[in-house]
Amino acid sequence: QVQLVESGGGLVQPGGSLRLSCAASGFSFSLYRMSWYRQAPGKERELVANIAGFGGDTKYADSVKGRFAISRDNSKKTVSLQMNNLQSTDTAVYYCGVPSMNYWGKGTLVTVSS
Fold it and tell me: How far lies 70's CA from each of 42, 88, 102, in Å?
């Protein structure tokens, strides 16, 4: 059974940092590009970043380039998202997933507020 479990969300002040993690199980993790998406209130889910199966290729939304960094550890079947210089516009539920397979976690809430 496929499981993706996100953790690390919370409340942070503008300019602060958070690190999200996603633990995967039930599929051949290293074979798949892993993605982080987010959905803000009243908005559609959008891609934040993704990373190739062996980590050599990453992609970022323009809005997070230079602030966020995605990484993965295939031995631990985890994918992480380091988020720095967070802004109020980053407030959203963040989801870990494999869109091509429609595998998704339940999400973790990130709130950026003073």
Answer: 25, 20, 20
